[in-house]
Write a structure and sequence with these properties.
- The chain is mainly beta.
- It has one helix at about 55-65; strands spanning about 1-5, 5-10, 15-25, 25-30, 35, 40-55, 70, 80-90, 90-95, 100-110.
- The chain has one domain (about 1-110): Elongation Factor Tu (Ef-tu), domain 3, CATH 2.40.30.
- Strands 1, 2, 3, 6, 7, 8, 9 and 10 form an eight-stranded antiparallel sheet that branches.
- Strand 4 and strand 5 (about 35) form a beta hairpin.
- The radius of gyration is 18 Å and the shape is elongated.
Length: about 110
């Protein structure tokens, strides 16, 4: 079960975890060799829903308003504090009286 700030969210159609290295800028030393300092490795969580009701999308956006959020997702392992780097939705369709978005996407980066 996916949770954002303790709010249960519908399971995504696709989920991917990436590990990103955080580093300083690459510089050159007197010999012309590249020098870099690796600071940390952080997780990036990419979530996608093929079809997501508008009410569910609004629930996700509301949970993300606080800036940093606690995220629980089975593929991420333990809970992680994240911020939202990117979010997007595709075409809005109607299913009966309920608006539904296609290809809703969310990218969360570990703090």
């Amino acid at each position: 079960m996916l949770k954002i700030d303790n709010i249960s969210i519908s399971a995504p159609s696709e989920a991917e975890i990436r590990y990103k290295r955080v580093s300083s800028d690459v510089e050159r030393n007197a010999l012309g060799e590249a020098v870099i300092d690796f600071i940390a490795t952080k997780r990036e969580l990419r979530l996608q829903w093929a079809y997501l009701p508008k009410s569910e999308w609004e629930k996700i956006l509301g949970a993300l308003e606080s800036g940093f959020v606690e995220v629980e997702c089975p593929i991420a392992g333990d809970a992680m504090t994240c911020y939202c780097e990117d979010r997007s939705v595709g075409v809005k369709q109607m299913r009966g009286t309920e608006p539904v978005y296609t290809e809703a996407q969310l990218t969360l980066l570990e703090r």
